[in-house]
Amino acid sequence: MSRLIQWNLITLDGYFEGDAPWDLSGHELVWGPELNQFSIEQLATADGLVFGRKTYEGMAAYWPTATGEIADYMNALPKIVCSRTLESAGWNNTTLWRDDLPAQFARLKEAGDGNLFVFGSADLSQTLMQAGLFDEYRVCLMPVLAGKGRLLFPRGIPAQNLHLRETRPVSTSAVILFYDVKARI
Predict the structure, then answer these.
(1) Pairing state between β 136-142 and 79-82
(2) Angle between the 101-111 and 122-130 helix axes, to the nearest 10 degrees?
(3) Residue 142 pairs with which residues in a beta bridge?
(4) Which residues does residue 175 pair with via DSSP β-bridges, in sequence order?
(5) Which residues of the chain have pLDDT under 50?
(6) Smallest Cα–Cα separation from 151: which of 122, 118, 121?
(7) CA pair distance 25, 173, nearest whole angstrom
(8) pLDDT value at position 19?
(9) Contact at 8 Å (CB) between 149 and 16?
């Protein structure tokens, strides 16, 4: 069975993005060889990548012309974009899902045996959290207090009991946290 994993970098006060869409300036403070290698490790375990419309559009605009090992994975892996408004999804190996997301994800998880990663995609992540579909949260906690921006875990999501499986410090003062979902509370 596949595991659905939410992966993101967040500030100490919980923001994954600044006030403006795609304001990921905090990433520059912590990105380096260790996170680059970690990205490759994660992608090597992936059955697929999952995006909401906004994240998909940004990723699809960047990765097809990028080079390197991460780009090779990003472009080759199967991708799902979840959107009711997107007309088409032209990035290599992408399938567009419009409706009944919880049931489609339940079937997809049952059919696979690798990891399915949701990168960014806060609106989609909230839908998946509401449905209790995440098996794991991987968070790179950045040593930044942003004070404003867009929260990764907004108010109103269901309470969940998590288990800290692993921590991995990064030389840029960030730490990667691996949380397994034990149960909804």
Answers:
(1) unpaired
(2) 80
(3) 11
(4) 141, 169
(5) none
(6) 122
(7) 16
(8) 85
(9) yes
Distance from C-alpha of 105 to C-alpha of 121, rounded to nearest angstrom: 15
Tokens standing for residue 14: 């919980």
Instruction: Identify residue 30 by its one-letter amino acid code.
Output: V
Tell me the C-alpha distance between 101 and 167, whole Å.
31
User: Which tokens sit at 3?
Assistant: 């595991």
pLDDT at 185: 56
Concatenate the DSSP letters of all residues of 129-156 into one string: HHTT--SEEEEEEES---SSSEESS-TT
- Which residue, chain included where needed, has tokens 């869409």? 21
Q: What is the pLDDT of residue 23?
A: 80
Q: Is the dihedral of CA 85, 94, 22, 41 positive or negative?
A: positive
What pLDDT does residue 184 have?
67
Complete DSSP assignment for the chain = --EEEEEEEEETTSEEE-SSTT--TTHHHH-SHHHHHHHHHHHHTEEEEEEEHHHHHHHHHHGGG--SHHHHHHHHS-EEEE-SS-----STTEEEE-S-HHHHHHHHHHH-SSEEEEES-HHHHHHHHHTT--SEEEEEEES---SSSEESS-TTPPPEEEEEEEEEE-TTS-EEEEEEEEEE-
Dist CA 164 CA 78 (whole Å) = 29
The conformational region for residue 21 under phi > 0 = left, psi -120 to 50 = alpha, else beta, is: beta
